[in-house]
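Lay summary. Proteins are chains of building blocks that fold into shapes, and those shapes determine what they do. In this project we predict the shape from the chain. Here is one chain we studied, written as its sequence of building blocks.
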Amino acid sequence: MFQQLKNIDTAFRHIRLFSLVLIAACGFICCYTVYKSFQLITQTQERIYILSNAKALEAYSAERKDNIPVEARDHVKMFHHYFFTLDPDDKMIQVNITKALYLADVSAKRQYDNLKENRYYSNIISGNISQGIEVDSIQLNLDSYPYYFRYYSKQRIIRATSIVMRSLITEGYLRNVARSDNNAHGFLIERWNTLENKDIKTINR
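And here is the predicted shape, written in a compact code that computers can read:
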């Protein structure tokens, strides 16, 4: 009788131990499944698919700090492109200048007003002059905020009788602002200043 009770008690302890192990294993599996599912969802949300020419291209989201050098250089490049790419067309000049002024503060507006007051844009239209710009390099200092930049480029001014190549060097600072349709990179150029703008060579046409 006592032996049977002892066997029942031993069997009960074994069953209880097995049940506890089984419950712990199930709990571990559930927690692991939830963790992996959350990890997979997070990775999926970081992927962006862009449709281009009927093809789905995969892109990955990233932190802003990872893209600051690339975005800052492109912001500076596009500002100078819009400000200095001019053709003898009043509407085209106005469109480009408007785009440029969205990317900079009053320092750029002040330079634009000075050029306009000196009839610079009127002379471009009346003289059928085209002006373009090619960037050589853009130096950035990301160690301090706002970020300092120096822009090196060459201007190409096409007149009826000649082509003038000029060296253009400017500097300024970049501060963060909200992104918008007019300012996709979320930077604003401050204290923009021209350090050098001189003729390199003239080619007769």
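What the prediction tells us: Residues 2-49 form one domain.
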